[in-house]
Write a structure and sequence with these properties.
single chain; mainly beta; two-stranded antiparallel sheet
Length: about 110
């Protein structure tokens, strides 16, 4: 079973130039080591997911990254306030260019 993800998890985009941190400012009643557990709704750009630097979808013309998309591969059984929680296997495919946002560290 994969690790559950909490506030402070480290994220990576396959087209980004720098990693980002997952912010989970709204508690959902579940914590691990006093950190808010992340759920599939924690995907709001610049609120939950920071910038990955420059987006290299077009390497000759990099532009600022605006992370977007919906978390996939969430827990099929564990929920926080009826919302599926994220695991280290969760990911987002960015609709802006097909980059894969993955979790490199669960934050635990």
């Amino acid at each position: 079973m994969s690790e559950y993800v909490v506030a402070g998890a480290r994220l990576k985009c396959s087209f980004g130039t720098v990693p980002a941190t997952l912010n989970v400012p709204i508690p959902k009643g579940v914590t691990i080591n006093h950190k808010n557990m992340a759920t599939m709704v924690d995907s709001i750009p610049y609120v939950n997911i920071g910038c990955f630097g420059k987006c290299n979808v077009v390497p000759s013309a990099p532009k600022p990254c605006t992370p977007c998309g919906v978390w996939m591969n969430t827990s099929p059984t564990v929920r926080a306030t009826e919302i599926p929680v994220l695991t280290k296997d969760s990911c987002i495919i960015c609709p802006a260019g097909g980059g894969m946002i993955t979790i490199t560290d669960s934050g635990q």
